[in-house]
Amino acid sequence: MTEEVVVLEPGDERAKKIAKAMASQTANDILSDLKEGPLSAAEIADHLSIPITTLKYHIENLADAGLIKIVRTKWSSKGREMKVYGLTDTLLIVAPQVKDIRAILLKYASLFGVIVFATVIAAVVMPMLMPPAPEPMPRMVAFNEGAPLGAAPKAGGEGFLGGVDTSVLAFFLGGSTVLLVLLVYEVYLYFTYYRRRKSRV
Predict the structure, then answer these.
(1) Average pLDDT, stretch 131-145?
(2) Other CB atoms closer than 10 Å to residue 3's CB: what's the count?
(3) For residues 30 and 35, what is the distance between their CA atoms, to the nearest angstrom?
(4) From the CB of residue 21, how many other CB atoms can be counted at a distance below 10 Å?
(5) Which of 12, 16, 18, 1 is nearest to 68 (CA)?
(6) In the predicted model, is pLDDT for residue 160 greater than 70?
(7) What SS3 state is found at 181?
């Protein structure tokens, strides 16, 4: 079954219905009971030991919010048709109400600046906290015949990132990667959801 993705904005009708349906602990108990599989109203009321009238109130709210649905019907021993309820396969995403592409870019630019600042601070502070590395012993090598023995010549420069601690570099790359993924996702939401919603208003 394909999962439905629903983006909720504070104050919209769907968000209000979900908030109303989930305001009671009984509603949460009903959802927990339905995790085990589809059940009829009588079966849920029996499991939770609550009156059927109370259950029906919460069932209606949950169904109206789109959190549960009727998956099938069956017949009771008395010949009555009974509705069997199950959970909907829905992913709910709560997002801010106002979205603007410039605001999105400015937000992530500010967060990237925080990461850069934290990386610089870590690069300066960490060497002070780390114990000094022991100096390597000089390695003696023989040159051409007749030349004196001496220390091995030093290798070339360590490169641009040679003096940067690997943990600091990992922090910077990890934080930047997370920000990039979130930025791509939010820009995708803007062009696929917020922009269309704004045009309908």
Answers:
(1) 59
(2) 9
(3) 9
(4) 23
(5) 18
(6) no
(7) helix
Tens digit of each residue's pLDDT (9 = 90 or more) over 3-19: 566 666 666 787 888 88
CA 189, 195, 200 angle in degrees (round to 5)? 130
Comparing 115-119, 131-135, 175-179, which segment has the lowest mean pLDDT? 131-135
* 148-152-153-155 Cα dihedral, nearest 10 degrees: 170
**According to the model, what pLDDT value does residue 37 have?**
92
| Residue 198, phi-psi category: left (phi > 0), alpha (psi -120 to 50), beta (remainder) | alpha
DSSP designation for 79: S
Picking from 95, 111, 110, the residue whose alpha carbon sits closest to that of residue 192 is 95
Residue-level pLDDT at 190: 76
Q: Of 199, 200, 197, 201, give the one whose Cα is nearest residue 8.
A: 197
